[in-house]
Amino acid sequence: MNWSDEKIISFLEMYRERSLLWGPTDAQYKNKNKRHDGLMEIAVSFGIEKVEVEKKIKNLQRQFCRKSKKENDLPLNSNIDSSRDNVSHGEYTELLFFMTKFNRLLTL
Q1: Residues 108, 68, 76, CA angle at the centre, nearest 5°?
Q2: CA–CA distance, 79 with 65 (Å, rounded to integer)
Q3: What pLDDT is stored for residue 78 in this prediction?
Q4: Is the distance from CB of 26 to CB of 19 less than 8 angstroms?
């Protein structure tokens, strides 16, 4: 599947709406059947398999973590243009909800 910016944003919005897929405080987070159903809803909406949804989620999380780490590692007075990267926080502000998950991993 070709993932245009619009499709990625739509995908992230659907994922964010289903907090049982990513939010450990959600009452249904540990319910494997409900999580499966949530992933299947996204898969059906995009005409892809459930495994592809899981892969896309992981890829977007990794992409966000790499980008965040790269930006945090830059010196404050750096003149490096971060707009050359494929995904910027400006383009995919929907990715910012991954930040709480990422910050928890960094503090462990």
Answers
A1: 110
A2: 21
A3: 56
A4: yes
- The per-residue pLDDT for range 37-68, each reduced to its tens digit, is 999 999 999 999 999 999 999 998 888 878 77
Q: 65 phi and psi, to 5 degrees?
A: -65, -45
The structure tokens 């830059």 sit at 74
Per-residue burial over 18-30, b if 16 or more Cβ lie within 10 Å, else e, is bbbbbeeeeebee
The predicted model scores a pTM of 0.71
Report DSSP state, residue 21: G
Count the residues in the chain. Answer: 108
Tell the residue number behind the tokens 């897929």, with chain if given: 21
Percentage with pLDDT > 70 across the chain: 68
Please return the burial class of 33, using the count of CB atoms within 10 Å of its CB with bins 0-12, 13-18 and 19+.
Answer: exposed
Tokens 């780490």 correspond to 69
Which two structure tokens, joined as six digits, stand for 91? 């383009």
**In this structure, what is the dihedral angle of CA atoms 21, 89, 61, 104, given to the nearest 10 degrees?**
-80
